[in-house]
Amino acid sequence: MAHAPATWDDVVAPLEDANERLARAWGQVAHLHAVADSPELRAAYNGNLPRVTQYWTELAHDQRLFDRYRALHQSAGFAALTPARKRAIENALRDFRLGGAELPADRKARFAAIQEELARLAAKFSENLLDATNAFSIVLEDRARVAGIPGDVLAAAGEAAKKDGGRGWKLTLHAPSYLPAMQYADDRALRETLYRASTTRASELGKPEWDNTPLLERIVRLRREQARLLGYRDYAEVSLVPKMAESPAQVLEFLDDLARRARPYAEREAQELREFAGSAGIEQLEAWDLAYCSEKLRAKRYAFSDQEVKQYFPEDAVAAGLFRLVETLYAVRVTPARAPAWHEDVRFFEIRDAGGSLIGQFYADLYARETKRGGAWMDDAIARRAKDGRIQTPAAYLNCNFPRPAGGRPALFTHEDVLTLFHEFGHGLHHLLTRAEDLAVSGLAGVEWDAVELPSQFMENFCWEWEVLRHMTRHVDSGEPLPRALYDRMIAAKNFHSGLAMLRQIEFAVFDMRLHRDFDPDAGASVLELLEEVRDRVAVLRPPAWNRFPNGFSHVFAGGYAAGYYSYKWAEVLSADAYGAFEDARGLQGVMDAATGARFRDEVLAVGGSRPAAESFRAFRGREPRVEALLRHNGMIPE
Asked: Does residue 52 register a pLDDT over 70?
C-alpha cells in the first residue's frame, strides 16, 4: 500500500504529542525518585523503568518511522520548513541511526537488551551511592573533636543528633556536613575517617550489596558492545556524533593542551601546600589534609575565610540578587507563585516579560535531605512548544544540596554555593527563555552536549562582580552589605589553587574519555589501573590507593556524561569568551549591560537547539571562540 506523502503534520507532530505525554508523566516519577526517594517509590520506579526504556529503545530503531522521516527529509516540502524544523528532522535521522534503526533484526534485539540493562544499571548505581552515603554517620560528644567546625554546621549537626534521640553532633557524608568538616575540622583523625568513608562509598571496601565495581565494569563493557553493533570502534566515537567536538583524539589534544598550561601553576600550588602543611606540623600531606590546609593557607594569605564570607550570603539576599541580575539583563520579572510541591522546603516562581505575560515557571528545591541524591542539577518539567494554536509555558526543576536553616537563622551560603546556584539557574534560563516552538529543539533539546554548559558556566562569572555582589549580600547579624575590602581580598584569592582545580577536572575528563576509547574490560586491566595511568600523566597530588573515585562517578555512570565529561572544560572556553562581551561593554551599569544581555538572550538562550551551537556563538560574539578568556579568568595569562 502506498504511503501518503510525508509531512511534518502527519509524521512529526503526532509523534511529538505522544512522546511528550510519556516524557512528562515519567519525568515526574524520575524527579521524585531523585528528590524524595522511598522504598515504595524506588520499587515503582524500578518496576516501570524497563518498560519505559523498552519504549524509547524500540522507537529509536523503528524501521517504519525511520523510513517516514527519511521520506520527509527527501520530500519537496522539506525545503519550505523552518530552519528549526529542518534541524529537528536532521537530528532525528542521526538519532535513529544511533538508536540502531539500520541494524538487522537480530542485532536490533541485542541492542534493545543492552539499552534496557544500561538503564537498570544506571539506576542501581545511583541508588547504591545514595544508600552508602546515608548509611554512614559519626556522632561525637567531645567538643574537642569538633573544634574548628563552623557554628552553623555544628548547629545543624546538633539538631541531627537530637532528632535521632542522641546528644552531641552527628556528622554525615552529605555535602553540607562533609565539606565544612573536611575544610575546618582541626581533628586530623576525624578528617581521615570522613574522607575514607566518603571515597570508599559503594565500593568493595563497604557493604557487598552496594558495591558499584561490577556495575561500572559491566556498563563500560555494554557501551563498548553497543558501539561495535553500530559500526563504531568504541563508545567515545558514538558519544561524540551529536557533540561539537569532532573526535576523541581532538578532545584529548584539547585536554592535554589545557593540562600543559595549568601544570606549572598546579606544581607551584602543590609545593606551597606541602610547605605550609609542614609548618603546621603535618609532615606528610595526605588527601584528607588538602581542603583543611588549603583553607588555612588562604585565610592566612588573604586574611579571610569561607566562613567569614558566608555570613554575608543569607539565602533571601542571594536569591534577590540573582533575580535582579536576570531581570536587568533579560527584561523579565521573577516573582514567587504557588503550586503543589513534594516537600515543604520547595518554593515555586514565575518569570514574566515586561508586559506581564507568563514566560516560564520553576521549582527551587535547595536543601540537602537523606531522600535526595547529592549534587546540583536542573531538570525540565515542561518544555515550551506551540500546540493547538497556543504556546505551552515551560517549567523547570532547580535542585541543590545546600545546608538548610539551623539555629533560628536563615540558610547561609558559601561563595561556592552561590556559584552553584547561579550555574544551575543558567541551565534553567536556557530552558525557560527559549523561543523555539518545536519540542525537539526547544530549550536544551537538540543542543550539543558540549555546549549545554555554556549558559550555566557563563552565569558564574557574575558572582565575582562588585556591582552584582554588593546588591546580594547582607550580614546575617548586622545587616551590613559585603565590605569592599573583603570583596577585594576575595578577588585577590579568586585564582588561589586554580591550577590544581583545573588539573583535577582534566584528570576526570581524560579518565572518562580513555575509559570509553581505549579501555578493554576483557584485556585484564582494571578501571582503577587506567585511572592510575591517567594520574601518572595529569595529577600532581595523588589520593591514596584505596580511594575508589570511579564508584561514585555518577556523571559518567548514571548521568549522561559518558565520554562527555570534557564538556565542562570545552564549554568553559565558550562561556568565558561569551562573558568577555559583557566585560568589553562594561559601562555605568558595569557588566550588567542590558543591550549585551538582550543579544545573548536572542542569539544563545532563545534559539535553544534550533541551530548548531557554533553558529549561535558566532552570531553572539561575531567570531570563533578563543581560549584566552578562560586562561585569563583562571589567572594563567595577565589581565
From this structure: yes
C-alpha 639/C-alpha 407 separation (Å) is 43
397/180 Cα distance (integer angstroms): 26
The mean pLDDT of 148-174, rounded to a whole number, is: 96
Nearest to 277 by CA among 267, 265, 292, 264: 292
Listed by start position, the domains of the chain span 8-130, 136-201, 248-304+497-565, 315-433+448-492+568-633
Centre a 10 Å sphere on the Cβ of residue 153 and count the other Cβ atoms it contains. 25
Given a cut of 90, is residue 524 above it in pLDDT?
A: no
Query: β-pairing, 137-140 with 169-172?
Result: antiparallel
Q: Which of 116, 269, 295, 424 is catalytic?
A: 424
User: Of 148, 167, 89, 447, which is closest to residue 292 (Cα–Cα)?
Assistant: 148
**How many degrees, rounded to 5, is the angle at CA 194 between CA 193 and CA 195?**
95
293 close to 500: Cβ distance less than 8 angstroms: no
Compute the distance between CA of residue 121 and CA of residue 535 in angstroms, rounded to an integer.
Answer: 27
Closest of 197, 371, 143 to residue 157, by C-alpha: 143
315-433+448-492+568-633: CATH class: mainly alpha
The pTM assigned to this predicted structure is 0.93
Residue 532 a catalytic site member: no
For residue 587, the 8-state DSSP code is: B
Q: Where are the alpha helices (DSSP H) in 384-444?
A: 415-432
